[in-house]
Amino acid sequence: MNIQHFNTANRELHLIDIENELGTGQVKAADIARFRTFYLKANNVPANAHIVIAASCSQNLLESAFGWPGARTVWLPGHDGADRALLEIAYEENVEKRYDKVVIASGDHIFAEAAEALQNLGVKVKVFARAVFVSVILRSACNEVLLYSADDFKLAA
Fold it and tell me: C-alpha angle with apex 17: 128 to 91, nearest 5 degrees?
């Protein structure tokens, strides 16, 4: 039996609450595609990064799959469904053993505890969020914070 060890150095996981980042509960593939371009550039995302897009309804999940090809898409229905889906990954998928850095693309305070837990395990954690909607608790919980404004990214009219 051949067991391989994967080097986790410089591996990144990007946990993206697409509804939060776009500021709407009804996302469209075209807006997600535009956000993808903006996000990848703003965060200097390496080609080998793992991207997870979360939504809180099945229609947004479908739009996410079309708007961000190659990303893993997850969803849980209901209030905070996208948040809960991403937290499930953060807590249950051995993130600290697989990644050197996690980027949380959401401004929701619900991620603060997970950010602190991952950092305590040696993972670098960055938050990427719209400046007007980022929680003070989340900001203070992360190693790095990158905020953007409505002037940086807008939904298509």
Answer: 90
